[in-house]
Every structure is written in C-alpha cells, then in structure tokens.
Amino acid sequence: MKTILHKADSRGHADHGWLNSYHSFSFANYFDPNRMNFGALRVLNDDTVAAGRGFGRHPHSNMEIISIPLQGDLKHMDNMGNSTVIREGDIQVMSAGTGVEHSEFNNNMDSLVKFLQIWIIPNKENVQPRYDQISLSDLKVKNKLYQVLSPNPKDQGVWIHQNAWFHMGDFDKGQSETYALKSEENGAYIFVLEGEVSVEGTTLNARDGFGIWDADSITFQALNDAKFLIMEVPMEF
C-alpha cells in the first residue's frame, strides 16, 4: 500500500474577493510540480462564491467536470441549452468532449454558495458533450458508503467517460466500513468534508486529502461525526 497525505492548510489558495478557492492540485496561478494530479483526478477545488457572483461563460474540452454543492444554490447555463440550479444534496456532471461553454453563478443575492469543482481526465476524447445532474437524496444511506458516480450509465448516480467511482459517506462517531477498490489499476483519494476520520490508521480532519494506491481495500472509521468523499480513479496518468 502506498499513500500520500495532503493536509488542508497545504493546499493552494486564491482569494479574488468574489471567489475564495482552495486547490488540492495545481490550478491557475497555483503550481506545485509534486501536486499536479492523483492519477486521473486532475482538479479538486474547494470554492466559495460571493452572493450574486460567479464564473462567466467560458470554454472547456476533453475533460469530465463534476460539481458537488455543499451549501447554497449554484446556477448553471451552457451552450447545450441547459439552464438549471444545483443545490446542496445534488451532483452535476459535464462531459466537455469536443467543446462546451458554460457559466456557474451563485443564484442567491444574500448568501454564499460553496461547492467542490472536480476535473477527471477522460478515457475517451472528442466525445459528444453532455450534461446531467441528479439529487442524491434517494441514494444517501446513513453510516454506509453510497455510490454517486461510475463509468456505467445504468449504475447508481451520474456517469463519466473514465473507469472511476465516487462514493460519499455520512458517518456517526465510531462507525466504520471497508471499501473494496473496483480495479487493481486504481487508487482512491479521500477528501474529508466535515469531522474527523481515521483511514488505514491515518487521522484526517476537515478538508484533508489522502491518496491510497497499490491496495485492494481501505478501512474507514469516523472518530467523530464525519462526512467524506471517496474518488476512485485510474493511476496510470
């Protein structure tokens, strides 16, 4: 088993006034050659957007982009004709493929919006762009890992063009579970949203990231009430 620990206070940081963003991996003006990615996981940004502000229309191509709101309402518009709002408890995915333009704005004028922006390197390029979002309310299970993303359109959650699986956990103090990786070529990056979690004997606090590879399974225990995200991705990148 191999591991890498990224403490919350070691992340890149950019404060633009309207946007306060923490980068787990190199992004924009933050560059660390030792933190370019974790396998196919290229970007993990922890973003807070001021009331009424946001990201104006801009392009992407050949990237799988996932947004997970943690607080507030995020307004999405794109050149595929989508105009919608994603909220805490939702997950959004966009396959940029041959090219897409989109904008993301805080839909409220009196409160912040907080969300994770995640980019996964795809295993297929120049695909037809696509957009999807779902509510996780029907998938969520207390004290048990539940799948929110996979490579299979018929599976639970949203899907992307990559051999990747995301699971989320909302555990009470003392609860534990073992996660079995789907592929021996994959590793898993754990990102703690709230609370304190022990992962294979390493204690993680809120916003810490922990990568594990060359492992068949990973054991978690909530040291206090905790919420976390597991991103299983191919490691050959």
Automatic annotation (TrEMBL):
Q: Name one GO molecular function term.
A: metal ion binding
Transmembrane spans: none
List positions binding Fe cation.
58, 60, 102, 104
Q: Which cofactor does it need?
A: Fe cation
Asked whether the UniProt record includes Iron among its keywords, one would answer: yes
Coiled-coil spans are: none
- What are the Quercetin 2,3-dioxygenase C-terminal cupin domain coordinates in residue numbering? 148-233
Source organism, top-level taxon: Bacteria
Q: Known SUPFAM superfamilies for this protein?
A: RmlC-like cupins
Q: Could you tell me what the cofactor note in this record states?
A: Binds 1 Fe cation per subunit.
Q: Which InterPro entries match?
A: Pirin, Pirin_N_dom, Quercetinase_C, RmlC-like_jellyroll, RmlC_Cupin_sf
Which keywords belong to this entry?
Answer: Iron, Metal-binding
| Keyword Metal-binding attached | yes
What is the official name of this protein in its record? Pirin family protein
Source species of the chain? Maribacter aurantiacus
